[in-house]
Specification:
One of its GO terms (molecular function) is DNA-binding transcription factor activity. The protein contains 9 helices and 2 strands, in the order H-H-H-H-H-H-H-E-H-H-E. It is mainly alpha-helical. It folds into 2 domains: 12-61, Orthogonal Bundle (Arc Repressor Mutant, subunit A); 66-202, Tetracycline Repressor, domain 2. The radius of gyration is 21 Å and the shape is elongated.
Amino acid sequence: MAGRGRELYAGRSREQREAERRDRIVAAAVHLFATRDYDEVTVADVCAAAKVSKRYFYHHFTDRADLLFRVHTEQNAWLLAALVAAGPPRGSLEELVTPVMATLARMLRDHPERARVIYINAPRMEVRRRGLLHEEAVLLGDLILRTGGTPVDQRLFERAVLALVAGVTELIIEWVMQDFAEPAEELAGHLTTIAVSMLAGVPVVPEPA
């Protein structure tokens, strides 16, 4: 039933309906990109799965490539926001890294389709992935500095964090490709041990007491 100003339908505004349609498109895309090769997924497939017309698809996305880029970007943002929130405001290196790695493994295990879109089934996002490695390294570096203190060699610190992020990414890819066969808790423990081992050797000047 139309409501005030013909803007309401079934109790929802036009903006709410548009947002809901976009959410359905993104959810359908995550499922399809996670379960098929990119080249096998068409705009028509996405629209059919989302139960929207192509007109609504093109209201939000330019084409299939634009959809993939936005979906990949949004899934990464979802994951990174959770990882940043997982770290305590202060603590030792192990106290900071442990909840982050636990959250990473748990979220990917609980959302396998999102995991595949982020790490595996988006081959055309390889250049984007390289950029994300650097973004993730900056976020992790900021988290690590919650231990207090300043790196003696900033460039060494940045390279160590980037190497850690790249290594963790490869281990995650291997885990996802093996259908999460290893328990998330075991993987998180290994990632924590690796991270602490790598970063403990980077000299940091403690903050004055």
